[in-house]
Structures are given as structure tokens and as C-alpha cells.
Amino acid sequence: MARRARxxxxxRSARHRFGADLRRHREAAGMTLEKLAEAVCYSRSHLAxxxxxxxxxxxxxxxxxxxxxxxxxxxxxxxxxxxxxxxxHPEKYRRRMDLETRARVIDExxxxxxxxxxxxxxYARALFRVSNPRATPAEIxxxxxxxxxxxxxxxxxxxxxxxxxxxxxxxxxxxxxxAVMRAQLNRLIELVDTGTTVVQVxxxxxxxxxxxxxxxxxxxxxDGSSIxxxxxxxxxxxxxxxxxxxxxxxxxxxxTAYALSPKQTAxxxxxxxxGLPA
Length: 278
Known about the structure:
Layout: H1 14-28, H2 33-40, H3 44-51, H4 61-69, H5 74-88, H6 91-102, E1 103-110, H7 121-131, H8 137-150, E2 161-167, H9 168-172, H10 178-191, E3 197-202, E4 215-221, E5 226-232, E6 235-239, H11 242-258, H12 262-274
Parallel strand pairs: 1-2, 2-3
Antiparallel strand pairs: 1-4, 4-5, 5-6
Helix pairs in contact: 1-5, 2-3, 4-5, 7-8, 10-12
């Protein structure tokens, strides 16, 4: 039985865009993967994995594809973007990001920092500067650009449903200074209660809970499976064992009950904004 073509999300990842364009041009040319493999001197299996965005294309393939399809420098330009995605993000985070592009539902608890998917440029820049003190300005800007590109999935035609529970510490710690934090809080207020996003604050008064200590992300993927991801400073772990994922899911569900409502959350964020120095 023929393998079903994997659904790609070209508006969320440069690697997915490369794969989607490869498939589109191949099919428009009436070529099978076997025929294309002969034309560009790569194996069918390797091309199949690139076409489904499982592998980043090798450096010499884009030029061969442009020659085979007569596409000028289209694939060469796409490769530059896809390569940068791979270079910027360490290996330990790449699979997490791949899974994120497939998520139809994302639930995230954050104990210290605003999650990357909803950070402003200035907030992200402040974090990268303090965590990469020897990085050049150009390197910092590359990191910021990569984070902003990651946020494209929230503007996709069919974005994932996303809920976030932020510990009160997240909105009280003035990352980047008052102006940067004010803009970040305003960004969060915009997402508090929309058609696809809900943001809640867990107040200090709640006390201890099962997800304290870092970031926990729950994702329901496009194939119906569920995974969890836990991150602390400099380390991230993907959990796929059903009992472990279910345990995090139950803990998150409890926090939605303990957290402030979206309306109360927006009010607390406005209060935090007003408390920032001018």
C-alpha cells in the first residue's frame, strides 16, 4: 500500500515550505520520486524524507532541484532560510519545534517567563542578551528573528487552539525594563480571550502545585496523539508515555480551575502595567 503523503504546514516552517514546494513542482512536472531521484542523483527515500519535512535538504540539492524544475534560484533561496532554522535551534529543541508545527491544541504552563510563542521582539531580545552575554548583536538578532518566525503558526489559516497559564511571577518580573514589559503585558492582554487563545494567571495566593519549577507544554497533534514537553533552564524533555502525559494533563486541568478567569487575568495584567515606573 502506498504511503499516505504527510500533511505539511508551509506557513509555519521554512523546512515545511521547502518540502511543500518540492512536492508541488514535482507533481506539476508529472514526475515520480523515482524519476526525480534519477534527475538529481539522490535516493528516492532521501527525497521522500525531505519532501515530508523530516530531513533538512543537503547543501547541493537546492541547485539541482532548480535545474531540474527550471525554477531559477527558488530552492536555493528557500534552503538559506531552512538552513538557518537548523543552525539557530540546538538539536535538543528541534524535535519539540517539529511537533509544535503539527499541534492542533497547545496547553502551556509557565512559571517564570512569558512563553516564546507569545513574546514580543523586545522581550525576547532582552532574554537572549542576558542568556548569551558573549553573543554579537547580529547573533542576537538572528535568534530573535527565529523566535518571531516560530510565532507564524499563530497567524496560520488554521492556527492551533492555545491556552496558557502563567504564574503571577511571569507578569511581575520586569524583563527588559518598564517599557518592554509594558508592551509585553499589552500583547498578553490581547490574547487573553480570543477565538483560538485563552490566557490565565495563577496567583501567588494559590501556593504549591504539581507543575512548579519550569515550563510544561501539552500538545495534541494532527494524528490525534498527545505529547508533553517539560523545560527548565538549558534542558528540555519530550514525554510520550501515555501515563506520564496524562498525569501532566490532569495537573494542568487542575490549574485551569485554580487560575484567575480571563477577565480577572486581564485586570491583573493592567494593574501590573500601571505599577511599572514611567
